[in-house]
Design brief:
Blueprint: E1 2-6, E2 12-17, H1 20-23, H2 29-43, H3 102-119, E3 122-125, H4 135-145, E4 150-153, H5 160-166, E5 172-175, H6 182-187, E6 190-194, H7 195-204
Helix pairs in contact: 4-5
């Protein structure tokens, strides 16, 4: 399939031919959902933890005599039902990540790219580069292109001026092609690829 290429100024710059095996698949929500769950689980710190009854600083002595009080028979003040006691079945520090085959992750990325291509929210720009790191000028170019919420993927090396100009624009993210991922693709309204990124993706999935 062919995709039109534009410049940052909004002018047409020919077409680029992309593989149907990468950009022309019929998107499957189950594959994308599993991949997003994998990414979000892997990003969790897992440092949440509460103190159990063995962790709180309370005496282990019996609170009061066993019989004759008319109340319930209690033992340690560290029990969960008492103020200052330990938490019952509270969260503990752990690793939330789980495994997902490498081939499945590659397939999910293809489906994410195909989703944007099918929805018409995939834009290819000849080169993500600017002469000066001017945020206002770059914001104006994005407005002409209709990019209000977009993920921009450049080549292996990002243009320094472009990266500096884009970093202060809200809802605009810029990543090198190595950092492309399913979650960020689906989170944005528009996916913008440079020609270098398209070539790198085609080579990656060859």
């Amino acid at each position: 399939m062919d995709i039109e290429v534009t410049t940052l100024a909004g002018k047409k710059s020919g077409k680029v031919s992309v593989s149907d095996a990468v950009f022309g698949l019929e998107p499957r929500e189950d594959i994308l959902a599993r991949m997003v769950r994998y990414q979000r689980a892997k990003a969790r710190q897992g440092t949440h933890q509460t103190k159990g009854r063995s962790d709180v600083d309370k005496t282990g002595a019996r609170m009061y005599r066993q019989k004759g009080t008319g109340g319930a028979r209690h033992h340690s003040q560290a029990a969960p039902q008492f103020r200052g006691g330990g938490k019952a079945h509270g969260p503990q520090s752990r690793d939330h990540s789980h495994d997902l085959p490498k081939k499945f992750r590659a397939l999910a990325l293809k489906h994410a790219l195909s989703t944007k291509a099918k929805d018409g929210t995939l834009v290819v720009i000849d080169d993500l580069a600017t002469k000066d790191p001017k945020t206002a000028a770059l914001r104006g170019q994005f407005e002409k292109l209709g990019l209000a919420n977009a993920l921009l993927i450049g080549g292996a090396e990002l243009d320094t001026n472009f990266k500096l100009a884009a970093r202060n624009i809200p809802h605009i993210d810029v990543l090198p092609v190595q950092g492309i991922n399913v979650y960020d693709i689906l989170r944005c309204n528009t996916l913008v690829l440079s020609k270098a990124a398209v070539d790198a993706l085609e080579e990656r999935f060859k």
